[in-house]
Amino acid sequence: MGVQSVSRDQVLRRRVRVQQLDRPVDPTRAVTDAAVLDLGVQDTGPDGALWALAVRGVPVRSRAWPQDDLALVWSLRGAPHAYRRERLRDVQAALRPYSDADAASRIYDAAKPLRAAGIRPVDGLAHAARTMRAVVTEPMVKGALSTRMTQELPEPYVRWCRACRATHMWEMTFRLAALHGGLELEPGTSPPVVRRIPGWPSSRVGSVERARTSRVDPLDPVRLVLHLMGPADPKQVAVFLDAPLADVRERWPADVVDVEVDGAPRSVLASDAEALARAGRDDEPPVVRLLGPYDLFLQSRDRETLVPDPARRRALWPVLGRPGAVVVDGDVVGTWRPRARGRRLGLELDPWVPWTRDVQRAVDAEHERLAEFRGLERT
Known about the structure:
alpha+beta, five-stranded mixed β-sheet, 15 helices
């Protein structure tokens, strides 16, 4: 039996379904009822994690963070992500580095001085986590915490920052150590406020190194990327996780099916293969969404599949100031930027293709939805 060939259209439509972008709002739905929370929902920008949940039918509003149910922590790529509070221990276990090489990859340039001092990157991350936990006895603004950490840690952990004109801790070590120290972020704070996670066991503080006999996590990041963002290849998964390719290949699931996406080799979990094959065009109304710039749907590393045109890829993913995406059944058909004036919210839209009347009406409805989410009126 040959390798199954699937189209770009099938891939994108299947991601819309598995990421639950096709769900209408249900006021009775629990705020934790979103599959993307397993992998984490990035909270960057004014329409971050909560808007990503809202467009998946979760009843949430801007600036009304459900703190009993959701927690915000620095995690993948050092970015703030929302997770189910009750699963934070599983999240921390899943985000432990796969190896010393993985730890070094995650903390970037901070690994070099640690190794020069004879400190394994995993051990350095663990020491930073324990130190941070000891320092944060009450909520602390990031700047104040950084100052304290610089005072507490020896030279391999700190550096001279030309931009800040000060000596402080390496940024990625600082961010990634927080969760391993049992610390979370206070939602809605800028600069961010760091505080202890209630009930975090002391035995988990600084527990960074993986047990050699353990290969499976309840929230296995490799499997989750394949499930929510597949089909994918090991390199795409490694880039998303900021992990070495060798570590991802070592943990590549045995239950995958090889497919070709427009001729390119990819893999999908066997349990998802049938849904992928069925994800063709149907007679259902188009699913139209205004996705935030860092929505998980836009975070997959096969950007050439998401947006085939190079000029449009540059427009959607500029170096600075990303716009949001107007998505129709998984196809990016334009960009949007919010334009708030007083109590009214406008949108600056850039259609890439002519929109049908149905699409335009759906975009207007999503504009109304975004305004209501922000507690504003639509212009």
